[in-house]
Design a protein that fits this description.
Shape: rod-shaped
Number of strands: 13
Structural class: alpha+beta
Radius of gyration: 64 Å
Number of helices: 7
Strand order of the largest sheet: 8-9-13-12
Distance between the termini: 162 Å
CATH class of the largest domain: Mainly Beta
Largest sheet: 4 strands, mixed
């Protein structure tokens, strides 16, 4: 074997570079030819050894060639440690989100008020009894008390009761006019506004006059001579008296239509005439009827069966 460079320098194959340099300097001073006791051959061996061992590439080749190379032991595998369970960050506790309650307006109410023709003409005051829906006075509309349905309203949150209201009907009002009374409808919820009350005016009909929307029906009796000879009939309306001309030879049941324009509204008057015999006739009137009978030369029922 070639000279053992490690033995020449007095180091081992495991020595690091610092130990090799330190050993070289010591031996180089000791065996330098210029020093007392120096040895030229020994000095050459020291330099040759140091030249190889101080160069990492040459030292590796030297170690592999002469059996000084030791394969570095594989480092032990890293210790497998079971990681601690991941702790999820705690979410901030929040109270249950309350559903936003929206205001709800109360519903409107509608009722009818009957008045006479005279009240319609001159105006009046009426007491009306209206059925309202209001918040339950016990649960205040919450429907529950202490987790149970309210016993007062059976869990509906509402109670119905009647309330009397005095309303003013203005003069010259028309049939089926709607009067609005603000805030007198059903109560609102969650701060909503109350509904309104609408009163529909109904003018009462009598024996000879009846109202259907904007049409006024008159049943007008005529005496026989008025139907034969014609006449004029005065009718009382809400806009004052009007004169209806009945032509001669008018038949019973015949109809006459008249239109009135009242402040932009068009109303229809429908007159139906009926020939009637007065309940009380004088002796002279009866005599005249007897005379008419003798003078009559025809019969109304002549073709009654064949028609």
């Amino acid at each position: 074997m070639k000279n053992n460079y490690y033995e020449i320098l007095g180091v081992t194959p495991d020595s690091d570079m610092c130990e090799i340099k330190s050993a070289y300097r010591t031996l180089a001073r000791k065996y330098h030819p210029d020093m007392t006791g120096g040895n030229i051959n020994k000095f050459k061996e020291i330099n040759e050894a140091y030249e190889t061992l101080s160069n990492e590439r040459k030292r590796m080749q030297y170690n592999m060639l002469f059996g000084f190379y030791k394969k570095a032991a594989a480092p032990p595998p890293p210790r497998q440690e079971t990681p601690p369970p991941r702790k999820e960050p705690e979410q901030p506790k929040t109270s249950p989100k309350k559903e936003k309650v929206m205001p709800q307006n109360g519903s409107d109410l509608t009722a009818e008020v009957s008045i006479t023709m005279s009240e319609a003409k001159y105006g009046t005051s009426k007491v009306v009894n209206i059925l309202h829906t209001e918040l339950c006075p016990k649960c205040k509309g919450r429907k529950f008390i202490n987790g149970s349905h309210c016993s007062e309203c059976n869990g509906t949150g509402e109670k119905s009761r009647r309330r009397k209201l005095t309303v003013t009907v203005p003069p010259d009002i028309k049939n089926e006019t709607r009067l609005r009374i603000k805030g007198e409808g059903n109560v609102g919820k969650n701060g909503g506004q109350n509904g309104d009350l609408f009163l529909v005016i109904k003018i009462e009909s009598n024996k000879n006059v009846r109202y259907e929307g904007k049409t006024v029906h008159y049943d007008v009796p005529l005496e026989p001579h008025e139907a034969v000879l014609g006449t004029s009939v005065s009718l009382k309306t809400l806009e004052g008296n009007i004169l209806i001309k009945i032509p001669p030879r008018t038949k019973s049941g015949q109809k006459f239509r008249i239109q009135q324009n009242v402040r932009g509204d068009v109303f229809e008057i429908l007159v139906t005439v009926h020939i009637e015999i007065p309940p009380y006739l004088s002796h002279d009137e009866i005599k005249l009827y007897e005379k008419l009978k003798k003078m009559s030369n025809g019969s109304l029922r002549e073709n009654f069966i064949n028609e």
